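Reminder to self: tokens first, then the designed residues, so the page reads top to bottom the way the pipeline ran.
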């Protein structure tokens, strides 16, 4: 089970591939981060955003997770408006474990 809540019906091939790759990264935490963002945003992303999201998909899980959590400084060439949207999409107002 991938975890996706969005159907790929109605999406073009490129968006279907991006949605699939977002949910099948290897590290479950990154599946949830990238996959949930893709579920919510894939239909509205511009061609430029799609290209940038594909570029982010190619980043290793450990690096991307470190950038999102702030444990590793985000390289300037990846600190794009789309990356900032991805990072802002996942905010927590309470502890993960209660």
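Designed residues (98 positions):
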């Amino acid at each position: 089970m991938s975890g996706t809540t969005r159907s790929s019906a109605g999406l073009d091939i490129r968006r279907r591939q991006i949605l699939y790759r977002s949910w099948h990264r290897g590290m479950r935490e990154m599946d949830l981060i990238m996959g949930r963002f893709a579920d919510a945003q894939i239909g509205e992303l511009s061609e430029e955003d799609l290209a940038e999201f594909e570029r982010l998909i190619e980043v290793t899980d450990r690096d991307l997770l470190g950038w999102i959590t702030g444990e590793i400084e985000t390289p300037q060439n990846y600190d794009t408006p789309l990356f900032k949207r991805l990072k802002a999409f996942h905010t927590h107002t309470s502890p993960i474990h209660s």
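The chain is about 55% helix and 0% strand.
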